[in-house]
Amino acid sequence: MKRKQMRLRTDLCSSTLDSHRYLHRQRDEAQIRLRNSFSRCEEYLAANEDDFRRGFRVSHAQFSFIVEQIEPDELFHQGNMGRPMFPVRHQVLLVLWRLGHSGTGATLFQIGQRFGVGEGTVVLWTDRVLSALMSLERRFMWWPSPGERAQLRRELTNEHGLAGCIGFIDGSHINLAVAPARHDAADFFNRHHRHSFNLLAVVDRHLRFRFLHLGFPGSAHDQRVYRACALAQSPDSHFSTDEFILGDSGYTCDAHLVSLFRRFRGQESLDPDQVCFNRHASSRRVAVEHAFGVLKLRWQSLRALPVSLRSEVDEARAACWIRACVVLHNALRDQQADPGLWLTAIEREEAQRQYGEDFTRWEEHVSDDEDAVGLNEVEEEDERSVGQQLRSRVQIYASMWRQQRDA
């Protein structure tokens, strides 16, 4: 009898304990994180316009435009192992924050804590959004057609006296946050003592990027990068007769590139006409430096790219990161606001200290003399023999501009 009572009492306790575990079992950590992430993202989306713009570098309207452009991409509609995918707007929100910030506050851990997701999710969302932005590259960045080039020529001729010019070329270093863990890491070490990519770009008068050439390490000279790009390799596909792009003195003149005059070794000073040409052309060519400056001020991750280069896959990810930022720059160009509106007070002070009071118009750039150091004697001799007719033409332009200035 006692045994039967003891058994009944044990069964009752077991059933009570099981029911208690069922009713009060621990919640799934993944579900808790999902709800936390959703609420945090919605809270960021509900922020006022000023706070949102300083945090994510875009206005609410621009953010909606970006989401509308990439939301149809199949990457956001593929299976996720049976689990519902996070809203596209939340993924874009996280990636815009990551693109727009650099330093210790933009590590995987810090971003994961801010948005309530794991570090692996930060990487996954970043790769997904960057890939979607890359699919829009042809829509927002293209080489101008013959008709558009003719329009650019007319605008630059009428407004600036640059007859035949269709754009401006320059190179800029995209610094890496950490040194590459590769056998060729030394190739990425540039003259500023940083590891970087050398990004070549052509910009039109509206500060839109029209051509990019990316892949050379930071130690490569701008002229070397230009010789390898499609503009130099197949000029007939990109230029009509008498069309050219304007570059600084680090480039060598050819049939479709006019560079500023520079002093050769042993030459004390430039001729007055050459000085006049350089002064006039430099004031117009600054558009490309202005474009690079706006690009890096808005998407500050480009100041220290948080990609560790260990393999070709990492290099491809870095290239997608850079090109995606350029796509965003062009896509938002028509809706561009004063950079002071999407910079924090600390970032604005740093930009003024680095670039000057008019910080939106300049990007850190070496002098023409320093650029010329990287060219060897053979290239200097080539410049004397190549493009003499073009040199004669720009001499005429310089004389014309001097007459207009003195009139």
Automatic annotation (TrEMBL):
Its main location: nucleus. GO terms for cellular component: nucleus. Signal peptide: none annotated. InterPro entries: HARBI1-like, HARBI1_dom. It is found in: Nucleus. Residues 169-330 form the DDE Tnp4 domain. Keywords: Hydrolase, Metal-binding, Nuclease, Nucleus. One of its GO terms (molecular function) is metal ion binding. Its cofactor is a divalent metal cation. Belongs to the HARBI1 family. This is DDE Tnp4 domain-containing protein. The lineage of its organism: Eukaryota, Fungi, Dikarya, Basidiomycota, Ustilaginomycotina.
